[in-house]
């Protein structure tokens, strides 16, 4: 049995990061089904913060208003084609993208994920999934403390734990520091970015087979490094 680590550098407001999550899930499923002994390997996924800072105002604003600024160099026809393409890609991996709702700062959402690591991977994964779905499918404002509290409870935390995590100023400093470190680590690749066994970097919402290949290489390396 090998221990394989996968670190995902991402931001919740990034649609490609949600697609990348689905591709990673497919890659892990393929690996466990097809690679000899894959079911027995311990694959640890950690979600690392990255701040895209789509909204520089600070307070929540309508996503449609922000899109007008971000896509101002495109005509309406090109914008519509881009939206249809993203929706098509989403449907292909089981995501129903919706474009309404509001967008604020994602730091508190990342703080919850950071703090949830001590609860185990199952809770961390559930929280990341719920936050992605809340923002991209359910059109919820994941910068709102009430929304975050509800999502955290549904993912396995209690309200007191969620409030404590959101209220710790030191936790915010730790997340900010990690986000800055990940920005340097990713470099110009952008997000999502996957690091397999810390060293192999796989940038973008790659095809599941490409991610699986990286996992297989990590497995082979682990076998080569095992003196037994």
UniProtKB/TrEMBL annotation:
Residues 5-211 form the DSBA-like thioredoxin domain. SUPFAM superfamilies: Thioredoxin-like (SSF52833). Gene3D superfamilies: Glutaredoxin. One of its GO terms (molecular function) is oxidoreductase activity. It comes from the Eukaryota. It holds the Pfam family DSBA. PANTHER family: GLUTATHIONE S-TRANSFERASE KAPPA, THIOREDOXIN SUPERFAMILY PROTEIN. This is DSBA-like thioredoxin domain-containing protein. It comes from Hirsutella minnesotensis 3608.
